[in-house]
Amino acid sequence: MSAQEERDALTLPPALYDHALHLLRQSPDGVPPRRGFSLSQRPEPSEVPLSREEAQSAIREALNDLPDDSATLHRRFAPLGMGRRNMHLIRSAVANLPLPDDQREAARSLGRRLTRTGTTGPAVTAGLALLIRLGEPEDIPCLSVLGLFREFTLLAVDALDTLDRQRASVVWLAVYVRCDELRPLVRVLWTKDRQAICTELVAFPAEPRFLSTTVARRIAEASRLPALLDQHPSDTALLARAGRLLVRTGCSRDDPTDLLAYRDALTLYESVATRAGLLPPTLDNHATLLSLALDLSSGPGVLLDWPPGRRATLLESLGRLLAEPQWASLPDTDAGKADQRLRAGWIRRTGRQPFRRPASPGRLRVEVVAGDPVDREPVETRILLDGRPVVPAFFARGSAHSPDFLLDDGQLRAGSEPREVQLAEAYCTEGCCGALYVTIRRDGDQVVWENWRRPSTMPGSWEPAPELAAHRFDAEAYDTEITRAETDRSWSWPARTTARLIKAGLVQRPDLLSRWDAKRGWISSGFDDPDTTVVTFGYAPGLGSGKPDGIPLQFRWVVPDDGTPPEAQAAAALRRLADEDPKTYGQLCGGNRERAEELGFSWPDSA
After folding, report:
1. Do 161 and 188 meet the contact criterion of CB atoms below 8 Å apart?
2. Three-state DSSP class for 436?
3. CA distances from 117 to 110, 120, 142, 319, 522 (A)
4. Residue 98's CB: how many other CB atoms inside 10 A?
5. Which pLDDT tens digit goes with each residue over 260-310?
6. Region of 460 on the Ramachandran plot (φ > 0 left; ψ -120 to 50 alpha; else beta)
């Protein structure tokens, strides 16, 4: 050992891997706490403020000629001021590091030494990044332990995903699941108590607030759900929960790439669909099976690597089951609670949609799909090209836009001038994760979709997104399909229809609001209560004349469904807007307190 190495051995703190093992042994029952462990209490070398470009250059210099041992990398990083805030840049640099075949074994060995003996975040990050590329099964225990440091979780899970998807998901859930309702399941997954896993899988509440697409997928992976179903073939509660997890994994409002990333998705679809007849006929089970059918018909499930004809076969089997009297009669029984009444109405409207074949199949199909209202799923305009859904295939960062925007406003019509149309926006915002655009133009007897715009990388990765090809359609068939989609209202319900008619009335007569210095905003059915119509509008002095004095305030008027026809409700709402200042019955919901008080309004506590 050199003098420098002796000094390093005396001055460096214990390895982070050893520290994680120590913390795990101290945890009650050896189960990591929610949010895992943190590096924040570990001393790090003083960081030197560097720009992103300077940091990238410094990292490349430190990694140039891979060192033979972790201490050398520590020494290289130290004078460069590499700290925890540079860890993502270290990962990126290692990911792009050229590794000829004759260097791969040495790089793998270095990655193992860094992960097992590294004492600083940057050094261990470099080791984890190497094992993402080069890891082998013997690395699973070390990766599982280091992944409990939340600063390393995503790196460790990325490495584990290739080696042991089940273990990767257990680590991910241990760190990222924080709600009390799911912690008992996380505990038994960590301790590998297979019998208790079945119990806890069906015990937690499976509401959307607990089950994002990623949480649902990771639970399915961590529990080895298809194998559990095979081991317990008569457990209908487990079967129903498997269907529910599959529905949530493919939820388009969240991240549909989770369904495509789930390696056992086909197997789980097979297990649930072929055993669906074992389920008791209830509204909840009907909703689960219908949601799965909608996904198999026009959602992300279409994009899985199905054997020829198998998806259609599963759809047909679900269609036959749900058409049986004991299932088909469910929506007409006394539904009881408000959520169940919502669900019953949705099943009546939507129940046969995924099982109907298009009257005239063509290259383009437009399906308006309303998701389960109890889950507050969106109403999407699903566009299928050659049978494949465009938004999850080309974008997958959010759901397709609603028919209010794409169909009611005629956005998909092909005119004489090219028009760029936004088909979907990221569930965060366009400014954060982008949107999907296409330019639509008429070219003689054809309609062309071209010049697609989307984020430059593929969802969930840094891989560059390839250019999308132009698509051409027979103009007559195209116009027929768009007209059919625009006029088909079978998916709608009274409050939604009322909203559409109010919006149409205000488009025709903007003076109904401008007379009150107000301007139309978002109008649709309520999110929290889909059986209400919500009318929003902005107000500022002078706004009606197009010369607002200052920033407008935002108001919200909720119109409950009174049971009369939507046409009558919309007409009554428009008359009230004509006769009464909507600021007197709408609720202030946006702007700021100072502006509200300046204009004589009380700022609501809930705003």
Report:
1. no
2. strand
3. 10, 9, 11, 58, 57
4. 5
5. 999 999 999 999 999 999 999 999 999 999 999 999 999 999 999 999 999
6. left
The three-class DSSP label of residue 224 is: coil
HEC profile of 233-285: CCCHHHHHHHHHHHHHHCCCCCCCHHHHHCCCHHHHHHHHHHHHHHCCCCHHH
Tell me which residue has tokens 């969106």: 378
> Where do we find the tokens 């194998």?
227
Give dist(CA 247, CA 371) in Å, integer.
Answer: 11
Residue-wise DSSP of 291-322 = HHHHHHHHSGGGGS-PPTTHHHHHHHHHHHHH
DSSP 356: P
465, with CB counted inside 10 A (0-12, 13-18, 19+), is middle
pLDDT tens across 324-353, in order? 999 999 998 766 788 899 999 999 999 999
CA 501/CA 30 separation, integer angstroms: 60
CB 43 within 8 A of CB 144: no
- Residue 452: strand, helix, or coil: strand
Distance (Å, rounded) from C-alpha 261 to C-alpha 460? 10
How wide is the angle at C-alpha 131 spanned by C-alphas 127 and 135, nearest 5°?
145
Dihedral of CA 178/180/186/187: which sign?
Answer: positive
Residue bearing tokens 């026809």: 565
H/E stretch holding 479: helix 475-487
